[in-house]
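Our collaborator T.R. sent over the components below with a one-line note: 'Predict the complex.' Nothing else. No constraints on interfaces, no templates requested, no preferences about which chain binds where. So this is a plain run: every listed entity goes in together, and whatever single assembly comes back becomes the starting point for the next discussion.
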Amino acid sequence: MSTVMVVTSGKGGVGKTTSSASLGAALAQRGQNVVLVDFDVGLRNLDLIMGAERRVVFDLVNVIQGDAKLPQALIRDKRLETLSLLPASQTRDKDALTEEGVGRVIEELKERFDWIICDSPAGIEKGATLAMRYADLAVVVTNPEVSSVRDSDRIIGMLDSKTRRAEGGERVDKRLLLTRYDPVRAARGEMMKVDDVLEILAVPLLGIVMESPDVLTASNMGAPVTLHNPASPAAQAYTEAARRLLGEEIPVNQPAPRQGGLFSRLFGKKAAAA
Amino acid sequence: MAVDRVERRSGREGADIFDLPTVRLRGRNVLALVLAPEFPMSDWFAAFDRQLNAAPGFFADRPIVADLRPALAEGGPQAIGLVLDTLALRDLKLIGVEGAEARHLAGTPWERLATRLHGRETTVETPEEDAAAEPAEPPAPAQTSLLIDRPVRSGQSVVFAEGDVTIVGSVSSGAEVLAGGSIHVYGALRGRAIAGLRAGAGARIFCRKLEAELVGVDTLYRTAEHWGPALHGRSVQVLCDRGSLRLSAFD
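Returned assembly:
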């Protein structure tokens, strides 16, 4: 039984693509068959983050329009053989996507993969609504700042109303992934605290990824951080999040600033059962 | 319709004719219903039967004209007899047909039906429910409150002009709730809430935690900067008090 998972946020620049790549790689490292689907038609990035930009021949739009078969467009990762990428088209725009076409491609992907990870574009328009349309599970990527939290809230509302599942009376399972978290700034009150974000969004926490230069370095090297630097705190956070997606119960530790003192206590927050 | 008076006076017919009384003919306008069965017939008759069952009184003693154009176009002349037989099975009073010639009916039990009826098309209200045929159910009491058992998210709008709205959960920043009566929020109110669209100044807003952007009752409203930090995060009610909006904490 495969799972269609959308990685979404509403706001741009919060880490959707990085999180899609890192979670996808972490799942593939645990033996799962994973495909990453880039829905950001016209502004594709996932191929760069995955280091596959020189291998793109056909893309999602070609498959939807019948110009290429799905296997021709899939790019298998050179480091992980269970990880594949279905790139977006850079020369088209979101209007090239159709609901029926996306549904057909997702059905076909379900026959080959355990996880279909849909990397959503920013915004609430066609690209984002089609990325979430067929999702069973949504990872809502949020930064601890008010604008990102409000946009995520808007997206959660759409997940509850605009998806196939919601229209069929079911619910899309939603998890919050808090990224670019800086415990020092949160302690100083310059950033929202984890509890405040959780209280506003009322969605179970999948993980907290700290702001880290490792993530940027990995992206520039064309590798998900879980592959490039597995020992880094960000990679560990993504790996733990992937394990939670697979049903393991691991408590989420709230990152504390290294300087110790007031916030040196680590207080565990229990992750919601997957 | 005009009353026609036909006097039969033709002098050559014989003397006894003048002894007979004059036959007075009267005219009457009645509404005939036109039914136009279409292919696939099973679907059309299934749909028709449902309407018939819902309102049997509507068709009783009503003259029926069968419009055979669709049947003739799709099924040819042999479909005509079948359509008329099927209509007659439903105890309908067929008085004529449209869209078919007398030759189409010749030799069938239906050859006596009129094929050239005069008259104008009029619209007929299709009965939804026949009040006379079924015992009238008492109308369901109008819904006067709305319960929402989940958070109201940013960008969502809840509008319920009929009465009170109760929300078990929070109202997010950028969301709005508008109610005809009062609004109860068992959670944080972070967006907008406007009460009293119908109830007017008697409506109130209650929330467990006031972090709202705007609250309003009837025609009065206040934005967050008016009430300042003293009430922020507290359990509050909002009401109209002598023409101005008052916010007061419960704790």
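Summary for T.R.: Residues 260-274 of chain A have pLDDT under 50 and may be disordered.
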